[in-house]
UniProtKB/TrEMBL annotation:
Stated name of the protein: Cytochrome P450
PROSITE patterns xrefs: CYTOCHROME_P450
Annotated source species: Meripilus lineatus
The family this protein is said to belong to: Belongs to the cytochrome P450 family.
SUPFAM superfamilies hit by this protein: Cytochrome P450
Lineage: Eukaryota, Fungi, Dikarya, Basidiomycota, Agaricomycotina
Source organism, top-level taxon: Eukaryota
Pathways involved: Secondary metabolite biosynthesis
Cofactor: heme
Amino acid sequence: METIRNCAGIGYPAAGDTTGSAILSLFLAMSLHPEVQQRAQEELDSVCQSRMPEFSDRQNLPYINALCIEILRWSSTVPLAFPHTTVEDDYYNGLFIPARSIVMVDSFSMNFNEETYPQPHKFDPERFLSADRKTCVVSSASSAAFSFGKRKCPGRYLADAELFYIAASVLKWFTIKPQPGVVLPVRHEELFTSEIVSSPLPFKCMIQPRGEQHDALIKDAL
Ligand code: HEM
């Protein structure tokens, strides 16, 4: 009973801020990149026509999948993962790591490594598509955003499914735009907080239904 209670207890704080931050980052990225949003909506319209996206559509939505992975990379929600301690002396790539050392995973540097991700500050889902653009070549559950090893985020499959469904549903129904007259910054440090769980700094955007056909979809879903 205590184990069940503790699992539920840790799940809430571990899931809430991180998933919330990733979803806010979706709204921020779409406010900054109308060309990405338009391409995502074209893919959703061609696959789902006038109905809501479903999980079964996922394999036919490579650009939406790539967009979700790019959100996790670009927002780097948990930039240094959580600290861990070595229990015994160890060597890694020739480096001696004494027992009881604190080891941190620098996910931010991995996500912004320009050898892996050319122009790393650019928000570009294309980087995760195959050459023919028909397939998303990685799964978001394997993103560095969830860290590595035995203590890798156990909620990654849920987070991945939530982010996909929210991105697909929101972009099918709505267009996200910056508020008229508001110029959003572009530098990472001006867009996100610098905390254990990094989130978009407050920003204003408009969320507009995409048109009459989409108004009907929204009303049907209520
Ligand atoms: C976008 C969403 C999420 C991100 C970016 C994220 C990221 C992370 C990271 C980086 C860690 C640390 C791993 C490490 O210690 O090296 C972690 C741990 C954890 N996450 Fe997530 N997470 C997300 C969503 C979730 C969800 C939805 C759940 C549960 C429903 C969850 C449950 C946990 C738990 C329980 C731990 C601690 C695991 C342990 O210490 O062994 N996370 N997460």
